[in-house]
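User: Please predict the structure of the protein below. I'd like the answer in structure-token form so I can feed it into my own downstream comparison script.

Assistant: Understood. Taking the following sequence of 162 residues as input:
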Amino acid sequence: MNDPMMILKADHREVKRLLTALAESEEGAERERMCADVTAALKLHMEIEEKILYPVIEKQIGAEDAEEANIEHGLAREGLSTMGKMVAMPGFGAAAEMLKGGITHHVEEEETELLPELKEKLDRAEWLALGDAIAAAKAAAGAPVPPPARRRSAKRKVSAKK
């Protein structure tokens, strides 16, 4: 039983970390490797959201919200392309920061608006099934999946208060 918000937030934090390190990197092989890593991570994340999450958002929240998220992914792909072309050029850090800014905007909307609203509209089983589908897609692609959060039993909470 995987919580989709937990998985996606973990992805978001990892991409932010990678982009920050990348923007500060020095030209050379390490930057090229980091650029390839962030590109692969973002492309997989976007593909999973587009195939699994956004159709549910479109059905449960609305087509306009799903369309906006897809447009933002298109802009991120353009930013990745620009950044990749500039990996050994002056101005690379600016390209990485521009991509990071767009992703930060997208992540904020997803985490504070779309996902909470979707969680309200789905019942618990549907929400967790969505998380399981996201986790399965990540695992199938060979990407790490954060372990499901452990639920504390109500009994343990009551016992702990005594």
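That's the full token string. Residues 29-60 form the longest helix (32 residues).
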